[in-house]
Amino acid sequence: MRTCLGVATNFASEHLVGETITSSSWLLLEGYFLTASKQNNAALVSAIRLAKSAGVKVAFSVAAEFVVRAEKATILDVVLPSTDLLFANEGEAMLLSGASSAQAAVTALSQRCPGVVVTHGKHGALGSLGGDAWHAPGFEAEGAVVDTTGAGDVFAGAFLAGLLQGLSPLVAARGANRLASLVVAIVAIIAASGALRLLPVADVMTRLMGLILAALAVACGGDEHSRVVSPYQPSGKASLVIGIVSTAFVGGTGQLTATLIFDDGFRTPVTSGIAWSSD
Question: Which residue of the set 153, 203, 263, 264 is catalytic?
């Protein structure tokens, strides 16, 4: 895969918003910025320096195997020494470490970075953080796998969100695995008359918010069959109840409900909320 970043290749150090970075808990960076342009490369290095100067933790996602082939030395010698958490899939991790298995790659890369997470498709994810090794089994996709685009991205986002909520790496990875297994069963971009077109924002956001709920239910202790039972409920001119997840928890059952509020033009989500109610 060779992702086209388009205008993003013009992103440079002067475009960084220092206050946003230094006031954050985590900074998540993508490997694409090492290969797309010199401006991107410099911006990535500047962002890392800003984060470390403020005590902000840095997470780095390798993004693609071609990034390793092109910039392996830079990743190992420049990026990882300043990185707190590395995300990579099995192929990327093995290529970067020279190891012959995902587990061996975690072991090798942990010598260079205090936190390593290696995703392994339907087999889940394994990693080491703070010296503790773990393996979180994966989930089978519900239905056919139609588009794996973004699975690693949503995994990384969900995993970091879990850590920020005080979850253990294993529990955070369990929820992230669930979300990734659901995302691969939907398509956000479809072909029409020989051209690509995006699905409506409302449609995509509705689906994704529902998937996030299902993953959250699992991460919080629900069974792996938690799913959105009411994916789309209009509740006003410019608001949607995105989904209701019904799941069994220790001590009883309950529902998680997410609400997404759009602007008047129904184009951009402006706020959202998640509520819990027990049966």
Answer: 153
C-alpha–C-alpha distance, residues 44 and 99, integer Å: 27
Q: Are 16 and 46 in contact (CB under 8 A)?
A: yes
Decide if 109 contacts 116 (C-beta within 8 A): yes
Q: What is the pLDDT of residue 225?
A: 45
Q: What is the pTM of this model?
A: 0.70
pLDDT at 265 over 60: no
pLDDT digits (tens, 9 = 90+) for 189-226: 444 444 444 444 445 555 555 555 555 555 555 544 44
Distance of CA 131 to the CA centre of its chain: 22
DSSP 243-266: EEEEEEETTEEEEEEEEEEE-TTS
Burial pattern 27-61, b for ≥16 Cβ within 10 A else e, equals bbbbbbbbbbbebbbebbbbbbebbeeeebbbbbb
User: Angle at which helices 102-109 and 90-97 pack, to 10 degrees?
Assistant: 50
What would the two tokens of residue 278 be? 């027990």
Model pLDDT for residues 41-74, shown as the tens digit of each residue? 999 999 999 999 999 999 999 999 999 999 999 9
Residue 153 annotated as catalytic:
yes
The overall longest dimension of the chain from CA atoms, in Å, is: 56
